[in-house]
Write a structure and sequence with these properties.
The complex is a heterodimer.
Chain A: H1 2-22, H2 24-44, H3 55-73, H4 76-80, H5 83-89, H6 94-124, H7 131-156, H8 164-188, H9 197-222
Helix pairs in contact in A: 1-6, 2-3, 2-6, 3-6, 3-7, 3-8, 6-7, 6-9, 7-8, 7-9, 8-9
Chain B: H1 5-29, H2 41-44, H3 47-74, H4 77-109, H5 117-137, H6 142-169, H7 190-229
Classes of the chains: A mainly alpha, B mainly alpha.
């Protein structure tokens, strides 16, 4: 078990170090997120009576689109530089490689969300930074990263590469997006976490189910 | 090996007879619905096609899911053929259900389409399996295509009930008829046509599947022969 955790940590640490030197993923996700917010702002300006009404949708759509941008990169460098073969040849459990990659993706998306929340608060004048909303975002992002990491590995091995990723990912992600948007609406309208019981259960169920399935199928996805 | 020629022919004949009988029962034998305004009574008969089409699409995707699991376990090409054949038929029946629902919605809801959650999620199901075939067509190597297809087939099917749950918690205006205890919400005489419609569509599904399986096996054999000869 200790060794398993060490492998996860090694893969995660490798990805974090690559990112800290290139800043490829974070920069493109963050700049894209700001652009998306500006576009939403133009689209809704003067047309929506109250910007708070559209904020939940803006938040989740921006997170989903920026997230898929980052996920698309997760295996591209590994594949192009041939390091994926190295990872797979290492005498370690492949599911540990999955969890390492998944945690790295999760962290990248979470950092972008933390960057996004104050911006939405400023641009849309809606206070978003509450513990309850952070929990909802965390739960949604876990499911997103769990499925996204596996699908990213699928997409990178196809001719279309990352272009295919959103097509594969978004329909499967729909329950998370629905639950995320509905519970954000609830929170903005003054509900507490206790009122959102159903949606929280859906989040938890989705996260657990898809983490387990992704864990079980990852071997087949990276197999050569 | 695929199903024999005799089995395919038998199923084709059975499906033809069952569908003719189902059409007769739906359009002639079933009584008019009495609890709705007369103008939309003819439109109500769409239920004898719409619900079976939706049911068969789900059955088809279930078969794809099970075949995908079996493929990952055994790596036998047979299960990949089952999975892709069934998914293709499922897409056909999904389109039939959406189209027939839309035709019914015009007189009943006075619109071809609403963003009702059930309609929306059913469309998502369609997109899931379109994505399934997009994924497959973007991979050249047959082994990987089958493996990736199986992985996606599993994810896709598992997300369907979750999507279904999320729509139940959203308000829906779509009638809920999947309640056997209430006789499916149908009057006497209508239930027979309804149940028979479902059976007939299921037979049609198996006939289509048998044809598809036989065709795919032939494709595999031609590919193997070409490999052998060239």
């Amino acid at each position: 078990m200790k060794r398993y955790l060490q492998v996860i940590w090694a893969v995660l640490w490798k990805d974090l170090r690559i990112e800290s030197r290139t800043k490829d993923v974070f920069t493109s996700m963050a700049v894209f997120a700001v652009l998306a917010l500006l576009i939403f702002n133009f689209a809704f300006e003067l047309r929506v009576p109250d910007k708070a009404m559209v904020t939940p949708g803006v938040l989740w759509v921006t997170v989903a689109f920026a997230g898929v941008l980052g996920l698309g990169r997760a295996f591209i460098t590994e594949k192009d530089k041939g390091s994926l073969a190295g990872l797979l040849l290492a005498p370690v459990d492949r599911s540990a490689v999955y969890f390492g990659k998944m945690l790295a993706n999760l962290l990248f998306i979470l950092v972008v969300e933390l960057f996004l929340l104050p911006l939405i608060t400023i641009f849309f004048n809606v206070p978003l930074i509450t513990p309850a909303l952070l929990l909802i975002l965390l739960l949604g992002t876990i499911g997103f990263a769990a499925v996204g990491t596996t699908f990213s590995a699928l997409a990178v091995n196809t001719r279309a590469r990352e272009v295919l990723l959103p097509v594969l990912l978004f329909p499967v992600m729909l329950p998370v997006l629905v639950a995320g948007i509905r519970s954000t609406i609830g929170l903005l309208e003054g509900d507490t976490l206790a009122d959102l019981g159903n949606w929280l259960q859906l989040f938890l169920f989705y996260d657990l189910l898809f983490l387990v399935v992704a864990f079980l199928t990852f071997d087949y996805v990276v197999e050569e | 090996m695929g199903p024999s020629r005799r089995l395919v022919a038998g199923l084709n004949l059975l499906a033809l007879l069952a569908m003719l009988a189902a059409i007769y029962m739906a359009l002639v034998q079933a009584p008019d619905a009495t609890n709705i305004v007369p103008e939309i009574r003819p439109a109500q008969r769409i239920i004898y096609f719409h619900v079976p089409a939706a049911w068969v699409s789900m059955l088809a995707f279930l078969v794809t899911f099970l075949a995908s699991l079996l493929y990952l376990r055994s790596s036998h090409v047979r299960w990949d053929i089952w999975a892709r054949s069934s998914a293709e038929i499922g897409i056909g029946f999904t389109l039939a259900a959406i189209a027939s629902g839309s035709i019914w919605a015009k007189p009943a809801w006075n619109t071809w389409w609403t963003w009702d959650p059930r309609l929306t999620t059913y469309t998502i199901v369609l997109l899931l399996y379109i994505a399934y075939f997009m994924l497959r067509s973007a991979i050249d190597e047959p082994g990987r295509r089958a493996r990736f297809g199986a992985v996606y087939g599993i994810f896709a099917f598992l997300s369907v009930p979750l999507t279904f749950m999320s729509i139940r918690w959203w308000n829906t205006i779509h009638p809920v008829i999947l309640d056997p205890s209430a006789d499916f919400g149908l009057g006497p005489g209508m239930t027979l046509a309804f149940v028979f419609g479902n059976i007939a569509f299921s037979i049609l599904y198996f006939a289509l599947l048998a044809n598809r399986l036989r065709l795919e096996w032939t494709v595999e054999r031609v590919a193997a022969l070409r490999e052998h000869l060239l």
